[in-house]
Amino acid sequence: MGRNAALDEVRRRNLHDALPEDEAAISDLDDAEARLVDQLDQAHYRDDVLRLLFVCCHPELPLTQQIALALRIVSGLSVQEIARAFLVGESAMEQRITRAKKRVASAGIPFDAPGARERGERLAAVSTTVYLLFNEGYSASGGTEHVRAALCDEAIRLARLLLDLFPEEPELMGLAALLLLQHARAEARLDAQGMVVLLEDQDRRLWNRALIDEGLALVETALRRGQPGPYQLQAAIAATHAQAARAADTDWAEIDRIYAALEVLQPSPVVTLNRAVAVAKLQGPEVALAAIGPLAAYFHFHGLKGGLLMQLGRIEEARVAFAKAIALARTAAEAAHIRLMLDRLEDIRPPRGRPSPIA
Questions:
Q1: Phi and psi of 190, rounded to 5°?
Q2: What is the pTM of this model?
Q3: 50, 95, 105, 244: which could form a disulfide with 32 (CB 3.0–4.6 Å)?
Q4: Which fold is adopted by the domain 268-359?
Q5: What residue spans define the domains of the chain?
């Protein structure tokens, strides 16, 4: 799926925030991290990491700083990884984290472990943090590994713990279901040479049926509550893929319908880009190509555009799109997959049916 659809709401809320001043000279920021941890009490959480996430997501900090601080201090992601999760520059994210640390160090913010009411108030930020942690594991923003399974496993563990704390919350059911259904495909997403295998080409016998069954049960329970949210709808899309025994059996009309609902609930260029894959299946690449025209700023745009142009036989235009995509590739596996698409353009009759960036 597209990267960080849930983060669009966070970005919208902070679109007009001015960048903080340069605070790199502050000398006590590293100590602030240590003090933050030292200040934590021994509240009876089921898990220390989850408790730390709730502590970092303090309402005195802006939402983006809450999540960034949690990802940096608790989950250990680098500034570069967090910046890519938020789709901002590394220097801007460094400033945000620095500003948050300074506020912790100088403002006397009480970072005690929150009680039940406070946990409820911080749940959205903690859920987003877990979601972004999974995203970094599912499709790494850099480095030599395309998939970081340990991060995915940790995010799933935290999502289950969250659901233990809030067992009646349908969006948490949706979050857990989404992570389970996505991670169920892990063994099929890369081939023996580490090349990306697109969803439609994956050996579905390698999919983890136990994770799929758990995820399907959760999303069905959540949707029966009649309170659909972004995580539930994304999980419903993943469930539709998981229920298809073969790629040819995929209910693309249902996927398009769910994406349409998601666009209403949480409008996002990322959602529109992903919906275009379903549109291409149902109405053809020409219609999908028109739909993604305004989305050129997003990484997967160029790869999807190249695939659609390849289907239409517009080889030179496809080559330009793939060349732009390979320049933006974040991992060796992504770059290798795009090079494979460029090689296929040399065929007299280009292969059809490969517009999807889903892996």
A1: -130, 145
A2: 0.70
A3: 105
A4: 1.25.40
A5: 1-136, 168-266, 268-359
